[in-house]
Design goal:
The protein is built from six helices and seven strands; from the N terminus they run E-H-E-H-E-E-H-E-H-E-E-H-H. With 161 residues, the chain is of the alpha/beta class. The protein has a single domain, classed as Flavodoxin domain (Rossmann fold, 3-Layer(aba) Sandwich), CATH 3.40.50.360. Strands 1, 2, 3, 4, 5, 6 and 7 form a seven-stranded mixed beta sheet that branches.
């Protein structure tokens, strides 16, 4: 059975909800490993057939703990994961595009193959209080995350990704 690794980080719960929804979508098609970024590493990357990276956008960048995961994993798996499929999800207050660009640059260095456009969910949190508040992602947005997970799971299971 193929394995989908979902690596995520969340400070306010939004990205965690997105990652869990994607995992529900992929479950039943593939083995899903849903790991917080501090717990994931090179061995997890090598053991997976495809990836979903989920991060909040903080200060126009991916979160620091997500970057830490990439820092710890990048060179140990370089040239060992070439061609594997990946997708990204970003929980952002307004834009999310810079975090998406950062993730794409790292994935390009690993020679991963993008299989979907970045899923960017905008919470519209713009004040310090709203930015730091716990997030509740609306069901219709969680469905988008679940659909992305289902696509990744089905594609991996069928061998087309």
């Amino acid at each position: 059975m193929k394995t989908l690794l979902i690596v995520w980080h969340s400070m306010t719960g939004g990205t965690r909800q997105m990652a869990e929804a994607a995992a529900r979508g992929a479950a039943g098609e593939v083995r899903v490993r849903l790991l917080p970024a501090p717990e994931a590493g090179p061995d997890d990357m090598l053991a997976a057939d495809g990836y979903l990276f989920a991060t909040p956008e903080n200060l126009a960048a991916m979160s620091g703990l997500m970057k830490d995961f990439f820092d710890r994993s990048y060179y140990p798996v370089l040239d060992l994961v070439n061609g594997r499929p990946y997708a990204t999800m970003i929980c952002a207050g307004s834009d999310g595009s810079n975090a998406a660009r950062q993730l794409a640059r790292i994935a390009t260095g690993w020679r991963l193959r993008p299989v979907a456009e970045p899923l960017i969910l905008c919470t519209r949190a713009q004040t310090p209080e709203a930015i730091l508040a716990p997030k509740t992602i609306p069901p219709e947005e969680l469905r988008r995350c679940e659909e992305l997970g289902a696509m990744l799971g089905a594609g991996l299971a069928m061998g087309i990704l």
